[in-house]
UniProtKB/TrEMBL annotation:
Belongs to the DDAH family. The gene is ddaH. One of its GO terms (molecular function) is dimethylargininase activity. Coiled coil: none annotated. It comes from Streptomyces fimbriatus. This is Dimethylargininase. Keywords: Hydrolase.
Amino acid sequence: MPDSRVARRRRYLVCEPRHFAVRYAINPWMHPDRPVDVLLAQRQWRTLVDTYRDHGHTVETVKPEPGLPDMVFAANAAVVVEGRVFGSLFLAPERRPETVAYEAWFKAGGYEVHHPESVCEGEGDLVPAGRWILAGTGFRTTREAHREVQEFFGVPVIGLTLVDPYFYHLDTALFVLDEENVAYYPEAFSPGSREVLARLYPDAVIATREDAMAFGLNSVSDGRHVFISPGAAALAAQLADRGYVPVPVDLSEFHKAGGGIKCCTQEIRS
C-alpha cells in the first residue's frame, strides 16, 4: 500500500519567526505571561523549511516585519487557487497589518490580490480539497466570506461550523491528505457539519482529541508524506496504516500562539 501514495511537488510560502512572540491573547492557547524562546522557534522553523526542501518542495519566504509577531503564520494571509489570490481581513486588529506585507509579496510576483469585504483568515479557514473548498466558520472567518470565496474562484464552497474554541481555525481541526480524503477531529464541529464530513469523506482518518490538541491536524500533506507534529503519535500510526509516510517535525514553540506546521505554511497553487 505505501507505494500507492504519490507525492506531488508543492510550492510553499513561509515567514521567518524573527519577531515571533505572544504579546496578546486572541485564542485559548495564547498567554502573554508565558515566555517564548525565539531562538528555539527559529531552529524549529528552519527544520521545517529544510524538511520541505529535502522532500522536493519549493519554499519561498516573505520578509518578516517588526511589530507583527504572528506574521510567521503565513497560512492566514491568503488562499491561492489556480494562481488566483484571495486575501485576508483578520478579525483581530493586531493582525490586520500583516496583509500589507503579504500583498506586497504577491504583487511583486505578478499576482493580483482580491480584498475580502468580510472577515476572512486565508487558509486558516479555507481549505482547497480537490473539487471544492472546505470553509470554516464560528470563530473567525464569516459565512459572508464563504460566499465571496465561491464567487471569486467559481469553486463550490462547503461551510463547516467550528464549535470548540481550541480549534478556532479549520486548519487546526482538519487537513487534506490528497484529492480524495482528509483527516479530522469530529468533536471540533457542529453536529450538522460532522454529518456533512461523514458524507463527503466516509473513509476519512479520524483523530482523537489528544492528537488534535497536539496540533496533529495542523499538518501538511503532499499526497504521500505528511509533515506532522511528533506529539500526534496515534494519528501518525493511523496514517502509516493507510499508506502515508508521517514526517514528524517539532514546532512546539509555536503551539504557545495556537499554531503549528500548517499555520506556518501557505501553499501557492498555480
